What we know:
By secondary structure, this protein is of the alpha+beta class. Helix content is 52%, strand content 10%. The protein folds into 2 domains: 54 residues; 159 residues, 3-Layer(aba) Sandwich (Glutaredoxin), CATH 3.40.30.10.
Amino acid sequence: MKFFNKKRNFSTRIFVTVSLLGTFFLFAILFILSSYFYYSSTSSEAEDNYSHNYYDYHDPTDPFITKNLNLREKITKPIISEKDPILGESDASITIVQFSDFECKVCSGEEKKIRDLLNDEKYGSKIRLVWKDFPMTDTGSVSWKASLAARCAQEQNRFWDYHDLLYGDNGELDRGLYIDLARELSLDLDDFLSCYDNEVPEELFKNNIIEATDLGLPGIPYFYINDQEFLGEIKEENLKKLIDTEKDY
């Protein structure tokens, strides 16, 4: 009789143990599945927010524009935004997108060749130039601060005038110079300083940096002539040839 009771107690303990283990593993599986679906949904939402925050501004009628970036897609062209500084006619058949930096002297020289073409009787009416900031990512760097100052001038519709002064031989790029240039252009100094000190437009060129990174740009100056690309220095005659080969020209 005692032997029978011992056997029954032993079987009961096995049953209880197996039941507890089964319940534990069931809850563990349910927890893992619920976590997977939760993070999948939040990841998708984060990607959508990324796309929304960084690539909202665009002109859907612009034939050179890439649609709003989604992280599930690969960006293959620059995204032309209404916030990008542009020179030239909006209906120009040749769009030149320039990724550049105010601390880069080579960039200044290469851009001058394009600006000369904008003033050329043959090419001028067919070209537009789009500026894209690609400064150092260090927010305390000279190139970052120069981009910030130029975009603050853009807030007062004087980007290109300020841009030309920054690329001029004005000495060291620093806060004092930025203020002097703002005075030279008769900008509202209080508004300019408030914009600069509060880094109001930095999101604009942060977007440009992200865009350049997504495009895989190896350096500056980097130019897109419609679908053609080139890096660094290029002779003016070769630049004209690149433009002339565009079928829409």
